[in-house]
Amino acid sequence: MRIDKFLKVSRILKRRSVANEACAGGRVSVNGKDVKPSYSLKVGDEVEVRFGGGSVKFRIKELKETVRKDEADSLYEILP
Predict the structure, then answer these.
(1) How far, in Å, are 6, 26, 41, 65 from residue 32 at the CA level?
(2) What was the pLDDT predicted at 52?
(3) What does pTM read for this prediction?
(4) Contacts for 31-40 with beta carbons within 8 Å, 24 or more apart?
(5) C-beta of residue 5 within 8 angstroms of C-beta of residue 16
(6) DSSP the chain
(7) CA-to-CA distance for 18 and 76, rounded, in angstroms?
(8) Using CA atoms, how far apart are residues 13 and 6, in angstroms rounded to an integer?
(9) Each residue of 30-44: pLDDT tens digit?
């Protein structure tokens, strides 16, 4: 699954266009490397998204094309 689509499906970012811009702007890295929006994720990858005031780091637990709102947080686990 593409990184920009995962960020939208998991509801880490609200819209896919916002996720696309974040990746293109160098604010998203997977396993320590900045990635483009088309990067293909795998289970176990560690993703970091940098925001204006900080960042969030998480590990991919599962990849699904669609999930319900209350199940979205089961796709990843937040890392310290």
Answers:
(1) 18, 12, 13, 25
(2) 86
(3) 0.91
(4) 35/3, 37/2, 37/3, 37/4, 38/2, 38/3, 38/4, 39/2, 39/3, 40/1, 40/2, 40/3
(5) yes
(6) -BHHHHHHHTTSSS-HHHHHHHHHTT-EEETTEE--TTPBP-TT-EEEEE-SS-EEEEEE----S---GGGGGGGEEE--
(7) 19
(8) 9
(9) 999 999 999 999 999
Give the Cα separation of 40 and 10 in Å (integer): 15
Q: Give tens-digit pLDDT for 10-64.
A: 999 999 999 999 999 999 999 999 999 999 999 999 999 998 889 999 999 999 9
Q: What percent of the chain has pLDDT over 90?
A: 95
Q: How far apart are CA 22 and CA 74, in angstroms?
A: 22
